[in-house]
Amino acid sequence: MSAVPAARPAEDAAAEGGEDRSDGSAGRLAGYNLGYLDENTKRMIRRTLLKAVAIPGHQVPFGSREMPLPYGWGTGGIQVTAAVIGPEDRLKVIDQGADDTTNAVSIRRFFARVAGVATTERTREASIIQTRHRIPETPLREGQIIVYQVPMPEPLFRLEPRVAETRRMHALADYGLMHVKLYEDIARHGQVAISYNYPVMVNGRYLMAPSPIPSFDNPKMDRMPALQLFGAGREKRIYAVPPYTAVKSLDFEDHPFQPVRAPAACALCGSQESYLDEVVTDDRGGRIFVCSDTDYCHTRQAAQPREAAE
Amino acid sequence: MSPPLLEARGLSLRYGAVPALDDVALSIWPGEVVAIVGESGSGKTTLLRVLSGLLRPEAGTVLYRAPAGATHAVHDMGEAALRRLQRTDWGFVHQNPRDGLRLGISAGGNIGERLMATGARHYGTIRGAATEWLKRVEIDPARIDGLPRTFSGGMQQRLQIARTLVTHPRLVFMDEPTGGLDVSVQARLLDLIRALVADLGLSVLLVTHDIAAARLLAHRMLVMRQGRVVEEGLTDRVLDDPQHEYTQLLVASVLAA
Ligand SMILES: Nc1ncnc2c1ncn2[C@@H]1O[C@H](COP(=O)(O)OP(=O)(O)OP(=O)(O)O)[C@@H](O)[C@H]1O
Ligand SMILES: [Mg+2]
Ligand SMILES: [Zn+2]
């Protein structure tokens, strides 16, 4: 698990400041431990992460801390990032695919200030990517870590409200009920009506909620070379998918999983492959489709300046 | 004679001062229907729950002989193995369909659940089996996507039976499957159960208040009172020539009614 830096003594970490790695934001704020969390908390979270990596897809409880953000704003993801980030890292933060939303900007700024790390909007350049609701289009590679913000880690919670029973179902790999839900969808709608947070089996053993990413992104999780970490702050759970682990979306043999994508091309870069957001352009019902992944879209536009750009 | 499918010895369990089970022994052979009768509170439901591994007794053992010939001590099996047994080799039909059905899931989904829990992953096959079983329990297959709460009490009970039998269990525990239904509906359900038991060669442990149901379905019967088995024998013998005074009372009161 080389991707997660080993716990390092506080003095070492403290000795390294913002230096010249920070992308313009002033170096790390004085008065905070590196990454905001104290070293004991970080060690506790790293231990949880090691356990999570050792049992792919299994939810491991952890002592979630108060963060300077309310639950629902990615506190689980932030704590995971805080526990693995070091001064050499370069952080990218996306919210629904975009680097420039208020939420993404404030999390990025937070880490630039409390960890003195460099930040980037480029998927390729990032060593850690914290995300809410998307996986970047640019394939992730070995050595990168993607940290998902998770509101509800339990994939069975809508089907089985008793927490003790869901634990038993995970312990016994007793997931027939999830297939009953898929059966019901097909019987009623002709297809599985789950477009976000589509349940997956990890390593053929644990049923896992991939966080509310579109089902379009599910195939990217399968055998991904990067390490995938999931943090749920309010629910106090961490789970992980180590590099190159099989992640399979649940389906039936005669109704295979099908990732959904709007049948259109991006109005800005022309991509026929990327996940698209629908954008309303005026109040007369005009609308266009554009890439949800802003870095991907910008990169493509830059590569073909005379085409498609508006 | 082949060995029994299920064999219990010395079962005891008390709730506070109440002896719900007091040194109960029972065996059931392949293809046999055994009725358990007795007044309210005599320990019938408790006995079924202990036999089927849902409840642990304070004393005693329950042995189950699997098809391959291996014998399992039901209360010493791991939870995973027990659960597998409960949804493959065994079935449980509850008195209240609410306890045995998922009311928010369609009839087809209810029937398909045990198949999916044991690994079925072909939608068409699951739906085919659900359709087939609806017909077998005399529910219009057009109701396959209907919710059980829109079904009558008798239909709900038949759906529960279909949902239980779809995996072809060998041993089915039934706790007053006709309780709470009116008489004509009861009669139809009993006929259905009798036909299915004969077709599938099921072994059934049937708890009932209804002596007529026991006479219709059961090869043997046990009479319980205050947690003890007070009389046991072939159904006709027990009903026509009861030995224990409690059984005599029970039979007399039914005949008088
Ligand atoms: N969970 C429980 N807690 C306390 N006492 C219980 C519990 N379950 C059953 N009992 C008691 O144990 C005894 C046997 O109950 P059980 O439900 O097995 O009887 P039964 O023969 O099934 O009755 P009925 O015909 O009314 O269904 C009764 O005295 C009952 O009150
Ligand atoms: Mg009872
Ligand atoms: Zn684009």
From TrEMBL, chain B:
It holds the Pfam family ABC_tran. Gene3D superfamilies: P-loop containing nucleotide triphosphate hydrolases (3.40.50.300). Coiled coil: none annotated. InterPro entries: AAA+_ATPase, ABC_transporter-like_ATP-bd, ABC_transporter-like_CS, P-loop_NTPase, PhnK. SUPFAM superfamilies: P-loop containing nucleoside triphosphate hydrolases. One of its GO terms (molecular function) is ATP hydrolysis activity. Keywords: ATP-binding, Lyase, Nucleotide-binding. It comes from the Bacteria. PANTHER family: PHOSPHONATES UTILIZATION ATP-BINDING PROTEIN PHNK-RELATED. NCBIfam families: CP_lyasePhnK (TIGR02323). This is Phosphonate C-P lyase system protein PhnK.
